[in-house]
Amino acid sequence: MNALFISLLLPILNFMSPKDTGICNQPNVSFGDREKIHYTIYYNVIGLYVNAGKADFSTQSSNWNGSDTYTFTATGKSNAKYDWIFKVRDKYESIVDAKTLLPYQFTRQIHEGGFHQTESISFNQKARSATTSTATGTFKTADCTYDVISAVYAARNINYANCQMNDKVYLNFFLDKDLYPSYFKYLGKDVVTTRFGKFKAIKLAPLLVKGSMFNGGEKMIIWVTDDENHIPVRIETPIIVGTIKVDMVGYENLRHPLSSLVELVNVEDNK
Question: Which end of the chain is more exposed for a tag (fewer CB within 10 A), N or C?
Answer without folding.
Answer: C
